[in-house]
């Protein structure tokens, strides 16, 4: 019996092209809908649900809406709807940021304190040192490169867009300011870490779960639309060309910088552990490639564990350090946030110096420990100090989100690959202790 008749007999989907003679072609016709179409649909679904793809589409649609509105080919009320959404979501973000800081930092510090042992303190110390090194090295590299790279490119304050205003606005004042939320989080987290049992700890932990839900379900999914509205406004204000040019330059520079950062981390780890740094880095490449696809440190843990043991890290140390560093070691994220913040400050003509960024980088290292492990989670956790310490406006925060998400894949890959360097150092310290 021909394959296509067998397919009809089983009530399977017909192929979208006419049947042809020949058993091989019949086989292809029959199995298109059974084998190839589900695989293609699965791949397309993965692309459509990817945050980077959504942000990219949001940028393109926003630019298109702004340009068509300028030309008069699009009704102004469409642009005003986007402007209204942008203002409302910005107000909601301003309200949510103190809650995000408290919901992430308080449970994180209290949990670290409860289980604080020698191995934990060593791992946290090395991860934080790597994060600080990433932040400060990025600052000095950006200070040397960006003024020349971004020369004659400035984002002037918008004027034209003030002609069109939102349909309405709703004020959502935050329950407290950013610094108060940070100080309160440190006090509560440290205090709870010193107590054996506490009902308040359970409350704080559940509050943290609610905040993680808020980020994953109510903020991250809406970000592409928010970025679309921001780029519509930027285009309407005549600034889109300079912004897009800066985007591409930053992506190229940061890609090179994160490769150099990984090489330096493994040179340090290899020198301490007495191992070939380039061979160790090559061993971790499967974890790097996996993180590029998953955009999640947590989802890459099995591969990172496997490659860390291949480097010579003991299974006991790898089993402790790798899952922990997937949460607390975000050198790549720190590098992206620091460099993007400096680039925007240069473009906006905002003053900055090492004193300003020293406090910012040290605080950012702590914030990164508490950042949720979802795509875009690190930049959401950092919005508070971008606003309070660097003075970023809502529009600048939106541009930071767009820049960060555009480079999320290799930032996550940098974080994950760097976890192997931390594991090498911790493993060597434990070996020396046992001797």
What can you tell me about this protein's structure?
- With 435 residues, the chain is mainly alpha-helical.
- The chain has 2 domains: 3-48, no CATH class; 60-434, Orthogonal Bundle (Proton glutamate symport protein).
- The chain is 78% helix and 0% strand.
- Residues 1-14 have low confidence and may be disordered.
Produce a short descriptive summary.
The protein is mainly α. Helices cover 78% and strands 0% of the residues.
Topology:
Elements: H1 3-9, H2 23-48, H3 51-71, H4 76-114, H5 118-149, H6 178-193, H7 199-219, H8 223-236, H9 240-273, H10 277-283, H11 285-294, H12 301-310, H13 315-328, H14 331-348, H15 354-370, H16 377-388, H17 394-406, H18 408-434
Helix pairs in contact: 3-8, 4-6, 4-7, 4-8, 4-15, 4-16, 5-9, 5-13, 5-14, 5-15, 5-18, 8-17, 9-10, 9-14, 9-18, 11-12, 11-18, 12-13, 12-18, 13-18, 14-17, 14-18, 15-16, 16-17
């Amino acid at each position: 019996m021909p394959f296509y008749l067998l397919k009809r007999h089983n009530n399977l989907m017909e192929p979208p092209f006419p049947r042809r003679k020949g058993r091989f072609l019949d086989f292809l016709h029959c199995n298109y809908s059974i084998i190839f179409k589900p695989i293609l649909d699965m791949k397309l679904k993965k692309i459509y649900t990817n945050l980077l793809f959504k942000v990219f589409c949001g940028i393109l649609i926003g630019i298109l809406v702004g340009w068509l509105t300028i030309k008069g080919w699009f009704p102004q009320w469409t642009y005003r709807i986007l402007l209204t959404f942008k203002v409302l979501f910005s107000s909601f973000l301003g309200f949510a940021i103190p809650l995000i800081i408290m919901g992430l930092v308080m449970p994180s510090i209290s949990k670290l304190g409860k289980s604080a042992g020698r191995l934990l303190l060593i791992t946290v110390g090395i991860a934080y040192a790597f994060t600080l090194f990433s932040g400060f090295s990025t600052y000095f590299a950006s200070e040397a490169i960006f003024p020349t790279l971004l020369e004659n490119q400035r984002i002037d304050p918008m004027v034209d867009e003030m002609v069109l205003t939102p349909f309405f606005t709703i004020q959502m004042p935050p329950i407290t300011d950013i610094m108060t939320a940070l100080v309160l989080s440190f006090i509560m987290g440290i205090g709870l870490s010193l107590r054996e049992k506490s009902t308040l700890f359970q409350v704080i932990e559940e509050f943290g779960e609610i905040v993680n839900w808020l980020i994953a379900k109510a903020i991250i999914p809406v970000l592409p639309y928010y970025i679309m509205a921001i780029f519509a406004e930027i285009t309407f204000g005549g600034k889109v060309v300079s912004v897009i040019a800066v985007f591409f330059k930053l992506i190229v520079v940061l890609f090179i910088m994160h490769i150099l950062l990984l090489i330096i981390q493994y040179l340090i780890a290899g020198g301490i552990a007495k191992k070939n740094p380039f061979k160790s880095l090559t061993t971790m490449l499967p974890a790097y490639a996996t993180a590029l696809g998953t955009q999640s440190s947590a989802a890459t843990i099995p591969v990172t564990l496997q490659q860390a043991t291949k480097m010579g890290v003991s299974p006991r140390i790898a089993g402790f350090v790798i899952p922990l560093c997937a949460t607390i070691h975000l050198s790549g994220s720190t590098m992206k946030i620091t460099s993007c913040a400096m680039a925007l400050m240069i473009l906006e003509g905002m003053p900055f110096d090492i004193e300003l960024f020293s406090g910012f980088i040290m605080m950012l290292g702590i914030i990164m420990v508490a950042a949720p492990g979802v795509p875009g989670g690190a930049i959401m956790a950092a919005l508070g100090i971008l606003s309070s310490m660097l003075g970023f406006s809502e529009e600048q925060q939106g541009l930071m989100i767009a820049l960060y998400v555009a480079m999320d894949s290799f930032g996550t890959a940098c974080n994950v690959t760097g976890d192997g360097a931390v594991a090498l150092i911790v493993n060597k310290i434990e070996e020396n202790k046992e001797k």
